[in-house]
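User: Let's play a game. I give you a shape written as tokens, and you guess the letters that built it. Ready? Here's round one.
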């Protein structure tokens, strides 16, 4: 039943692979909860689903994750009802929770520098410090998502031109510029470490683990947290923090919002505007300098 729904998302709704996998994980959690509660799909009520959503909040999931779970559940039950696999659709009146639009955590320029340098300061030196430094530099230089980073292939690197080709949500392709630092660290990692890690399981993936396979998102998350602690950063940061930091630092430096939208791969300018929470002294200075009556 679940696999049939996931096939429907892929074949008929043209869902991206990452979105489909997220739905799979969300719905497996949902099915397990129903099983533990002793609730059958045939007798499921809206109240049952509401209790499951409450359990997600109690578990500490981010509002955006809860909203995605609700979307997955609504889509599943709509599919099951339309295909006549279930007699009713108990999720029809389930409300989509509002997402909190909170300001994302952002590193200062000094904090960013400290995290980027942390792999080279670790004692004793770690075996993967060149790889880790290259990952951190690329996250900050490009603002790519962690899912885009772990899927990055060598064939999509244009280091001489200081560009990378990225395949984002919905398999949308974009070219993202990177700076000299990121290009140089990636080059060092490829020459001095990747060649030793690579095997037949590596395919063309850029960043490899100890077994020569591609890194997982969780491995990158754990690595970022480790170096944040080593750098003495008190903030709770993740790979996505570098995406926020990348966008914020560009805008604080005077970058055009549309250009940042293009680099982040946002389909709407609205999604990019969350990063305009730049320092108020900077905004006042721009107004004072540029406005005729500033």
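Assistant: Ready! My guess for every position:
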């Amino acid at each position: 039943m679940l696999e049939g729904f996931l096939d429907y998302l892929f074949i008929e709704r043209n869902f991206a692979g990452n979105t489909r996998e997220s739905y799979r994980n969300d719905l497996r959690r949902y099915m397990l909860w129903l099983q533990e509660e002793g609730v059958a799909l045939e007798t499921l009520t809206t109240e049952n689903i509401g209790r499951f959503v409450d359990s997600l909040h109690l578990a500490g999931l981010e509002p955006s994750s809860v909203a995605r779970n609700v979307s997955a559940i609504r889509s599943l039950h709509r599919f099951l009802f339309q295909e006549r696999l279930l007699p009713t659709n108990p999720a029809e009146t389930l409300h989509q929770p509002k997402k909190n639009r909170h300001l994302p955590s952002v590193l200062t320029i000094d904090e960013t520098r400290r995290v980027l340098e942390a792999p080279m300061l670790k004692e004793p030196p770690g075996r993967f410090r060149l790889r880790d430094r290259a990952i951190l530099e690329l996250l900050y230089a490009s603002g790519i998502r962690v899912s885009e980073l772990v899927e990055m292939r060598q064939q999509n690197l244009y280091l001489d031109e200081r560009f990378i080709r990225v395949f984002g949500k919905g398999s949308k392709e974009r070219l993202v510029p990177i700076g000299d630092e990121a290009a140089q660290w990636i080059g060092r990692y490829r020459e001095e470490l990747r060649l030793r890690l690579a095997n037949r399981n590596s395919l063309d993936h850029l960043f490899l683990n100890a077994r020569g396979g591609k890194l997982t998102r969780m491995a990158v998350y754990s690595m970022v947290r480790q170096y944040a602690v080593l750098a003495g950063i008190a903030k709770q940061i993740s790979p996505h923090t570098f995406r926020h930091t990348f966008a914020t630092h560009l805008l604080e430096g005077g970058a055009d919002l549309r250009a940042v939208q293009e680099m982040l791969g946002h389909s709407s300018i609205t999604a990019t505007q969350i990063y305009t929470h730049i320092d108020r002294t900077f905004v006042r200075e721009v107004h004072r300098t540029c406005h005729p009556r500033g």
